């Protein structure tokens, strides 16, 4: 089943990716990247588009998973919309979680604050539905919301955020207790097989819509497939990442470490 989902995703992505890329280029939906090159942004549209089609097909086979698939598609769509707003009207002068919160309390709403607030509410909504008790609701809520934001923290160089997604997702495949939801990740692997080379070569950016959907996917997969102990470990790691992000530059850390820099540059 997982292999079929991967192959279907691969085929759909192969067809849709150049079409979406052309659409963004023709509509001048571009942005300056870290090298000050103007390239198409919001290729994360591909992620939402393919996941909707592919998992919609899965619904016909696994109708018993319909509530969870619908919940997942609802979540990535909402976060995708917020990410799309951030891509096109986001205030880049405000940086970091603290910056957006400070702006909010000063009476200025940023798309970053909207993204954080919406992400938390979606995470809470999902967690209330899938959790068994209050403790699990709290853990699941923070897991989903922090995973959603964590991918965005690494989306500063071509391919980096996707590599982080792949790393976390592969680890999760080994730490999970439940196998039934692997198709969510395998569907995404099909998308990334087609899209990753484009991102690595800086031909386009997936944008916040892409990083939001990647992060939401990790979060929801984690809470659906892991026990409370493993979830707590992931939550600790995510808290650590976010604390570090406010104090250090991940880009500088990666650039100053030979192994991390090699992995970061791989494929570019």
Q: What is the H/E order?
A: HEEHHHHHHHHHHH
Strand content: under 5%
Give the fraction of residues assigned to helices: over 70%
What summary fits the major beta sheet? 2 strands, antiparallel
What is the oligomer described by this structure?
A: single chain
Low-confidence stretches: none
How many helices in DSSP terms? 12
N-end to C-end Cα span: 32 Å
Mean pLDDT: 89
Q: What is the 3D shape?
A: globular
Gyration radius over CA: 18 Å
- Structural domains: how many: 1
- Spatial strand sequence of the major β-sheet: 1-2
Structural class by helix and strand composition: mainly alpha
**Strand segment tally:** 2
Describe the model.
This protein is mainly α. It has one domain. Helix content is 75%, strand content 2%. It has a two-stranded antiparallel ribbon. Helix 7 (160-175) runs antiparallel to helix 8 (182-200). The longest helix is centred in the first third of the chain and has 25 residues, at 2-26. It starts with a helix and ends with a helix.
In short:
This protein is mainly alpha-helical.
Break the fold down into its secondary structure elements and pairings.
Blueprint: H1 2-26, E1 30-32, E2 38-40, H2 45-61, H3 66-89, H4 96-105, H5 111-130, H6 134-153, H7 160-175, H8 182-200, H9 207-225, H10 228-245, H11 250-255, H12 258-265
Antiparallel strand pairs: 1-2
Helix pairs in contact: 1-2, 1-8, 2-3, 2-8, 2-9, 3-5, 3-9, 4-5, 5-6, 6-9, 6-10, 7-8, 7-9
Task: Considering the chains and any ligands shown, give keywords for the structure.
268 residues, mainly alpha, two-stranded antiparallel sheet, 12 helices, 2 strands
């Amino acid at each position: 089943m997982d292999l079929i989902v991967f192959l279907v995703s691969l085929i759909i992505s192969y067809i849709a990716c150049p079409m979406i890329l052309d659409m963004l280029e023709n509509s001048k939906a571009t942005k300056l990247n870290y090298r000050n090159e103007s390239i198409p942004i919001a290729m994360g549209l591909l992620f939402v588009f393919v996941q909707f089609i592919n998992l919609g097909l899965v619904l016909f086979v696994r109708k018993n998973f319909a509530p969870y698939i619908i919940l997942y598609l609802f979540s990535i769509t909402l976060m995708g919309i917020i990410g799309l707003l951030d891509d096109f009207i986001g205030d880049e002068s405000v940086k970091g979680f603290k910056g957006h919160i400070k702006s909010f309390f000063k009476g200025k709403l940023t798309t970053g604050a909207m993204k954080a607030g919406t992400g938390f509410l979606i995470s809470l909504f999902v967690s209330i539905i899938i959790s068994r008790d209050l403790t699990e609701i709290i853990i699941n809520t923070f897991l989903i919301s922090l995973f959603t934001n964590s991918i965005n923290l690494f989306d500063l160089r071509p391919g980096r955020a996707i590599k982080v997604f792949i790393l976390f997702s592969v680890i999760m495949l080994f730490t999970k207790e439940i196998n039934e939801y692997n198709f969510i990740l395998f569907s995404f692997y099909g998308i990334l097989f087609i899209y990753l080379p484009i991102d690595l070569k800086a031909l386009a950016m997936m944008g916040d819509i892409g990083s939001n959907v990647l992060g939401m996917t990790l979060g929801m997969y984690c809470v659906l497939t892991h026990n409370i102990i493993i979830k707590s470990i992931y939550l600790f790691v995510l808290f650590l990442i976010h604390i570090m992000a406010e104090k250090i530059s991940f880009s500088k850390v990666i650039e100053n470490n030979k192994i991390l820099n090699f992995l970061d540059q791989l494929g570019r």
